[in-house]
Amino acid sequence: MTLGPLADTGKDGRHLLTCPLCEAMCGLEIHVDGGRVSRISGNRDDVWSRGHLCPKGASLAAVHEDPDRVRVPMIKVDGEWRQVSWDAAFRRCTELLQPIIAEYGIAAVSSYIGNPTAHTFSLGRYIGMLLGMSGIPTSYSSGTVDQWPKNLTSHLMYGGWWAIPVPDIAHTDLLVIMGANPAVSQGSLLAAPNINAIIADIRNRGTVIVIDPVRTATAAKADEWLPITPGTDAALLLAVIHTLFDEDLIRLGAAGEYVDGIDTLRAITADWTPQRVAPATGISADRIRQLARQLANTDKAVVYGRIGLCTQEFGSLASWLVDVVNILTGHFDRPGGAMFPRATAWSLTTQQLPGLEGGRPEFGRWRSRVRGAKEVLGQTPVSCLAEEITTPGEGQVKALITVAGNPVLSSPAGHQLDEALPTLDAMIAVDCWLNETTRHADVFLPGLSPLEQPHHDDLLLQFAISSVSNYSPAVFFPDDPDRPDEWEILIRLTGLCTGTPAEAVDVTALDDGFFDVMCYLQGLTGPEIRARYDHGGPERILDLTLRTGPFGDRYGENPDGLTLDMVKAHPNGIDFGPMVPQVPDILSTPEKKVRLAPQYLLDDLPRLAARLDRRADELVLVSRRHLRSNNSWMHNFTPLIKGKDRCTLLIHPDDAAVRNLTTGDSAVIASATGRVEVPVEVTDAIKPGVVSMPHGWGHGRAGTRLTVANGSPGVNNNILAPPTFIDEPSGNGAVNGIAVTVEPA
Ligand SMILES: Nc1nc2c(c(=O)[nH]1)N[C@H]1C(S)=C(S)[C@@H](COP(=O)(O)OP(=O)(O)OC[C@H]3O[C@@H](n4cnc5c(=O)[nH]c(N)nc54)[C@H](O)[C@@H]3O)O[C@H]1N2
Ligand SMILES: Nc1nc2c(c(=O)[nH]1)N[C@H]1C(S)=C(S)[C@@H](COP(=O)(O)OP(=O)(O)OC[C@H]3O[C@@H](n4cnc5c(=O)[nH]c(N)nc54)[C@H](O)[C@@H]3O)O[C@H]1N2
Ligand code: SF4
Ligand SMILES: [Mo]
């Protein structure tokens, strides 16, 4: 097939764009005709995704064209939004924030950083500036209802909070998936192209087992579904490890030389027998033993755990033990097992945290003011934010900056935050929609659409199963040529927090300073490197991170090495091949060893033991995702929302029968924090005793500008999530495994 040349930004014709929406990073073809998108398809020549795309990527035109998408900055005057110039919007930020900082200090300012910051070209590269250089002492993020346990266990085991082993699904013969639904999510902390096809390939040559309370789309395609009681994965894994020791199945392989703590593990798992954990987990002792044997006796095998393992009561223990099982069965740092990716460009996000270098187990260095929650890896649970806003006293949060987030829907007991936000003295939102959270802002600073900015991933490359690089220029110019990119907005807000009026911030100077820090991390002299560039911004950072990455030219040291120019010359991307063994180089512990049994995690085992003896809850609630949703924010696009109501409660026929419920009935679900009413879907695709609701719904609120979403609002499951129901070691919100009751409405 011969394809025409690529069109330049703003021109009609064929554009290539890496989809920024999820970890699949699909290469798309965007066809523009008469200044508008006429068609979006998968780019078959993309070296990574080979033509794959999903309905969300195919809907990027709807995202771009959405009349509700905010394109002009706004300030709120007497409760009404008024469109203003950028200069006026930044001046308003100054007017609001400066007096608060003058009176109460910077500790009265906080920020909330949402999920899309990990996905967009400029936010991903500059959010580190706001977090690291603004002086804001306490920031909150969606990270503490997501991967915090995995960050914690990687920090403790490997000395790097983002040194996260990824299952080498392209080469494994036995894949055990726990608490993840990649058929829908497309992979998480696991960036792979067309993951469904890869899983189908594993089945052709081997076996896929899914351990999940729900027979998900992934489980339906697997060889076996093992329904598990939510929150008991750590117990299951301890029994697997017990069996490995008991039956002499430990095979460390080449990595063995770099592993510390085997004897401790043997001792602590001695009484975690399969018989002991079987009743609580719902998986028989025989099946647990057999699972251990399968893993030990398959040359290429790997266990993968994700959001269902992290966002639960024992998220840290479960996340840790997944890695331990992979290591003990010899499926670590070798093809087909759990491996460390080699990203073509490094990310500032994944650098060591100041004061915690080398995996130091020092947490609780400070505690949240109201609840006394301990800081872990620099953050306290996002569920603390509401009380920090509403509780008076020294250190009360008076001003909030939100960047690409919707914590009113996405965080535990978000309804309490919804009530707290209007009491702030000032709120600034960097977002693209007036959602359930940003409607409370005083200033709204809109970001560009995904088609108005270039793309090259940053954080997601750190989880990619092969080392790829792919740059795509913007498809369109912004409607207003003077519109700042989001990185510039973040620089101005950073400057404002450190004392300069936002409108007067010297953007170039701060950008240069930030770049110099990144150069310093690589042992380079910033001003010397800067002299090579005639522009700053994320492109300069991208060039730096590529050139100083594992394949880079290091500014001429390796003359054939990678540069951004080289990537740009390959519009279908460059692939440097699959993951390769990296231990011990990847380890950042001072002794260059993997710590198999960190004391901080061992200290949590008694809590798990107590869980086994706890009386079973009547019903527990878990969350789910849908292929055509993206957390809370893609419900406003007609192509994605049409079809039957997705915001339903899945319930097993036995549980439905005793409550007189049939499909279509409305039920009231209640927990310790709240109650919601939701239509019921009776199905045998769920374990008895468990019910499931999707997250990210609950639209239809006054002041939002989400015309389509508000027509199919659904209800919010996080109303049911108690703010103090957390994974203790990490502080991560446990939005799965919530005790609930269900009865007819
Ligand atoms: N019950 C339950 N709760 C959960 C989860 C769950 O499984 N169950 N999952 C958790 C997880 S894993 C996550 S990551 C969080 C997500 O939590 P959040 O990040 O708080 O929520 P999102 O729905 O991703 O909202 C992102 C917002 O960013 C805005 N946005 C989109 N693109 C851009 C952009 O380019 N620039 C800017 N500035 N803004 C943009 C949109 O308006 C959108 O509202 O939710 C968590 N909450
Ligand atoms: N289409 C789509 N794709 C997405 C997103 C989206 O909203 N929509 N969100 C993106 C984001 S931010 C993330 S973090 C990823 C998440 O990607 P995944 O980790 O694949 O997340 P989910 O699809 O929510 O699957 C979590 C599974 O955990 C199960 N589960 C719940 N509790 C437990 C438990 O205690 N034990 C076990 N074993 N299982 C449990 C649930 O039933 C569910 O099937 O997806 C990303 N991709
Ligand atoms: S799977 Fe869909 S949302 Fe994810 S990158 Fe591909 S097209 Fe985009
Ligand atoms: Mo997430």
TrEMBL record:
One Pfam family matching this protein: Molybdop_Fe4S4
UniProt key word DNA repair: no
Entry-linked InterPro entries: Asp_de-COase-like_dom_sf, MoPterin_dinucl-bd_dom, Mopterin_OxRdtase, Mopterin_OxRdtase_4Fe-4S_dom, Prok_Mopterin_Oxidored
Stretches assigned to coiled coil: none
4Fe-4S Mo/W bis-MGD-type domain residues: 12-68
Positions of transmembrane segments: none
Metal-binding listed as a keyword: yes
Record-level Gene Ontology MF annotations: iron-sulfur cluster binding; metal ion binding; molybdopterin cofactor binding; oxidoreductase activity
Entry keywords, A to Z: Iron, Iron-sulfur, Metal-binding
Record family assignment: Belongs to the prokaryotic molybdopterin-containing oxidoreductase family.
Protein's name in the database: Molybdopterin dinucleotide-binding protein
Organism this protein belongs to: Mycolicibacter virginiensis
